[in-house]
Amino acid sequence: MTWRLIGPIWRLPDVTAAQRLVLLALASFTDKNGSNAYPSLATLASMACCNRSTVHRSIKALLKRQLIQATGKGRKGTIRYRVNVPMQQRVLHSATPSVGTAPYNPINKNPSYKNPVNKGDSFNDSRNQQAVNIDRFSSVQYSKRGTPLPESGSDMSARVAREREARRKG
Prior knowledge:
- The chain is mainly alpha-helical.
- It has a domain at about 5-85: Arc Repressor Mutant, subunit A, CATH 1.10.10.
- It has a two-stranded antiparallel sheet.
- It is built from 6 helices and 2 strands.
- Helices cover about 35% and strands about 5% of the residues.
- The protein has helices at about 5-10, 15-25, 40-50, 50-65, 130, 155-170, and strands at about 70-75, 80-85.
């Protein structure tokens, strides 16, 4: 079954309840491409909680509207269907920075975020100075609330070694 079909089936306009239930039941038998569904009328009737004649009328209406397509015969003489529900295109998110963030520059290890561009952007919010002054190369990691997370064992040993060296020199 392809889960991508369920949302578009629920949003179909001008479809009766019986047709929608039969279409959802039929979609539960499809492969990832929305095809190769060949359940019997009795199986669809039990899943949609209706009679076989209601399932037969619903399938005829769905075929007429071209929401499903008969593609051949399945096991034991059942008709194989393909679900042709108009699906929304998947939007691929790009890795470009959002409005108001400074562009990434690998040469500049400490970019300044002093001038917030977007007042609603929490990364550039001037009231949250702790979040504004974090750069991606910082060794300190912060939680969503802005508090520092406990340091790991290797970070702690490096910090203790730096403090010992500073006390010895100073």
